[in-house]
Amino acid sequence: MKNLPPEALAEVARYFQVLSEPTRLQILNLLRQGERNVGDLAQACGFSAANVSRHLALLTEQGLVARESRGTSVYYHVADESVFALCDLVCGNIARQLDDTASRRKAFAPGRRR
């Protein structure tokens, strides 16, 4: 992000904003297993088809997901696999932070003082 103009930073922020919603991350995880239509995704997520469609529209707008019409159905698939590398990086960082916090808490655990 070095030396990016404000317009470019705003676009980067929109990309991360799309990834900041748990339902969209759940949809991406489901699509990681293969393409699905809105009804399949809605059932797997436990949300309405309308709700899932709104999330898919945002994911599609950012280029993370692509859609393909087949007859009367629309199927979605991951268009940018690099999103999983980004998510794995973030998950690894969160796990390290949690491990560090747990280690620091152990220092204050009852029964450790003598």
Automatic annotation (TrEMBL):
This is ArsR/SmtB family transcription factor. Pfam families: HTH_5. Keywords: DNA-binding, Transcription, Transcription regulation. Residues 4-98 form the HTH arsR-type domain. InterPro entries: ArsR-like_HTH, HTH_ArsR_DNA-bd_dom, Metal_resp_trans_reg, WH-like_DNA-bd_sf, WH_DNA-bd_sf. The keyword Transcription applies. The keyword 4Fe-4S does not apply.
